[in-house]
Amino acid sequence: MNYETERQHASWVLRLLVDASIAAHAPDPVDWDLLLDITRANGVLVRTAERLATLGVRVPDRFAAAVAGERERVRSTLALVRHVSGACEAHGIEFVFPKVFQDYPDMGDDVDLLLLERSARRDDRIVAGLRASVAGRDIGGWIAGTTTYTIDGCPSPLDVQHGRLGVVGEQTVFPTVLIGHRRHIVVDGSEFAAPPPEDQLVLQGLQRVWGRLRIALCDVVFTMSTIRRGSLDWDYILATARRHGALAGLGCYLSYVDQIHRDVFWQPLVAEPMRGVLGLRGWGRVEFHEGGYRFPLARVNSRLYVRQLRGRLAARDWTGAARLVLIPAVAAARAFRRLARGLTPAAAPPRGNERAMRTADAPIRVLMITSEWPVPDGRPRTTYFIKRQAEFLQAAGVQVDVFHFKGAKNPWNYLRAWVLARRRMSQHGYDLVHAQFGMSGLLALPKLLPLVVTFRGDDVQGIVGQGGRITLAGRVLQLACRLVARWTDAAIVVSEHMKDYLPRSVRPHVIPSGLDLNLFRVIPRDEARGRLGLALDKRLVLFVGNPADPRKRHPLARQAVDILNQSTPAELVVAWGTPHTDIPLLMNACDVLVFPSAQEGSPNTVKEALACNLPVVSVPVGDVPLRLRGIEGCELCADERPETIAAALERVLRRGQRIAGRDTVTDLDERQTTQQVIAVYRSVTTHRGRQPDLLGAPNAVP
Question: What range does the domain containing 289 cover?
Fold first, then answer.
């Protein structure tokens, strides 16, 4: 982004909102998308639209739609404030809304309610009649005694502060000042309790810089407008700020607002006698970029922290000092939380209905996470079914972005991918995350979006090592995937028997991996062999999979074919590293598929063989017994001895016929399974209040 263009648009907004008497020259040209991003993220969207309307400026439809959505959010937020105010007055609860109305007709992302009482015992009376639930809070909110409620039907949460203010609730006296000095104001025909402007300015000194990443335009507009009116009691402001340890923070904050005022209006905001008293010098420069006014974050916050702590110790306020000592831990926890959300310090949180407005009329957007994406890196893979599912979903009208990474059983790879995936989630308007295999679901925890996970086999069944036993790593993987399953909004397994490997509280959908029946089709045997350069007079036994994977048991297949050769000559063909498009040719060229795997979910290889009418000899594993049931010419071995497998192979080869398997897998057409997956997407997005516009397009992929 061009920072100069961003700064010009921010300055234009300030001129529009702070001084209506001057002609605000618009940037040439106006970047309406940028203007929308700035005004929405900085809490001045409605006022900017109203000011442009008075100037006769016609805004684009997208901007107008955003304004309409924000006005609706403000209306619902005002209704919440009206309800809370009435409940507090009815029950004799001392309260004030510290800053809810300072930006009206815009309103902040949440509703701050300050109670005199330090206990949360009376919260139930305040939220009675609302469909409210307690939201999770970080360590700072827990220490400060803040409780956040999410309200059904209102996009703005309610933050209830119980007799304390500050990063860790270090301000215990100033709340009594705010409540004691409250006055009644009339907004939209209703009376509300709010502090006078002097107390609000002191509150700005306590909160606008200390512990913050940026200063928002809405705060700058409020402060400039309040000071420019010229009716403030500065003696009271200075005395109150000193008494409550806010003078340094107020001086720092006003130094930045004064700089901005001089840059935009070419004159200082704070009169000269007050500049020295407030200590406006020495705080560094402030610049608008990346969505807000940025200042020397580390230097300023450390300086304010030392002054606060020194003042508490000098006043022998041991309780306040003890709380301040906790601030570095809180700051570290919040930094980690931002990292977990994928937010950089420059990213501004979404406001109100922004997400709903952005996606209400658009197809559902999915971030698909997988460590098994078949990238062209020269490594053989068998997971083309993941790529195929993504392609069919896109053809059906779903917008799918794929985040693929190299896991390789390396925790550092997962940690690095986790950071990148969180950043991707926060920067794009996805409706849900779909993780392919349980371990990929770890990248979506803690959840930012509804989570769908497809469990496909060894992720929940465990990794099989030499000797057929689950390895230690496999057991750790099982535990991790069971944890992921508990946090999913919807779990998918690829076969019925896999349900038993998930926690009982999880109710998974059974959706087998689909087949591309146009790719896996019947081709004459001799034609397929001719295209692959295979001899026409040999009996060929096909093995598909990595020969080095203990789970696939290639040595068992080799032993069985060696025994078979004692009576019926045959050659074992290993398909590993073969181009995926050649697999259908191999299945049509060979005489039988041998499948001795020790562990499977719903193996695609068997289903693809059936689609090509290739006879299958398999041990009982996964859902293979169900797939082979009733198909003449296929053999399900009674045990896993190589002699048993060899005997079954001999019977199939002597029969010398293809099977009628294709009709048994037509229900696995990828078009049909795609619609089942979309139904799962609908279920999790609908539960979150999203009605996605999904296009059923069963014939979209030829």
Answer: 65-340
